[in-house]
Amino acid sequence: QARALASPNIEVVVVPDSAVFAIMSRVNKVILGTHAVMANGGLIAVSGSHMVAAAARHHSTQVVVCAGLYKHAPSFPFDDDRFNTLMAPDAVLPYADAKLVGAVDVVSPRYDYVPPDLVDILVDDNGGHLPSYIYRLQQDLYDNANDLAWNMPDQ
Fold first, then answer.
1. CA 71/CA 97 separation, integer angstroms
2. Is 49 helix (H, G, I), strand (E, B) or coil?
3. pLDDT tens-digit profile of 19-63?
4. Distances from the Cα of 151 to the Cαs of 43, 102, 134, 143, in angstroms?
5. How far is it, in rounded angstroms, from Cα 94 to Cα 109?
6. Calpha distance 59→134 (Å, rounded)
7. DSSP secondary structure string, 2-34?
8. CA–CA separation, 72 and 116 (whole Å)
9. What is the C-alpha separation between 120 and 30, in angstroms, rounded?
10. How many CA atoms lie within 13 A of 140 on its CB side?
């Protein structure tokens, strides 16, 4: 992905995960994509997004999230891991390291939950919104009361 950006003469710097916090003081703005926008304004985003957003919050760097309206989910994240899937750990720990593979347990999550307090603005097809406004936007998107996750039937 970095090569694709660098080809049209865009300056690209690849930063390893371990150096995100160290370099964040020199960053002006963080732009994230997301897999889903939850009803509370939180995000289900690619693994590592929570760390980047937390580092940005610590350094007072603005976090902008770009997502289409089709990525809005009318669910609340009551359990952070409910919306996650685990990937094969061979990208983190190659099977060639046979001695180490049997000695450790490697968990490789596909997504992170990013809470709404780490997001400054969400930009979608209708413009920019604060995370606290997402519930209202989703009421307009899901007009049928039966579609809304917060309108649960009586038990």
1. 39
2. helix
3. 999 999 999 999 999 999 998 899 999 999 999 999 999 999 999
4. 21, 47, 16, 12
5. 16
6. 25
7. HHHHHTTT-------GGGHHHHGGG-SEEEEE-
8. 14
9. 10
10. 6
Q: Tell me how far apart the alpha carbons of residues 80 and 69 are, in angstroms, rounded to a whole number.
A: 22
**CA-CA distance, 134 to 40, in Å (whole number)?**
7
Q: Whole-model pTM?
A: 0.79
Residue 43 phi, psi dihedral angles, 5° rounding: -125, 150
SS3 content of the chain, % helix, strand, coil (to 5): 35, 20, 45
148 contacts 140 by C-beta, under 8 angstroms: no
- Please give the Cα distance from 14 to 3 (Å, whole number): 10
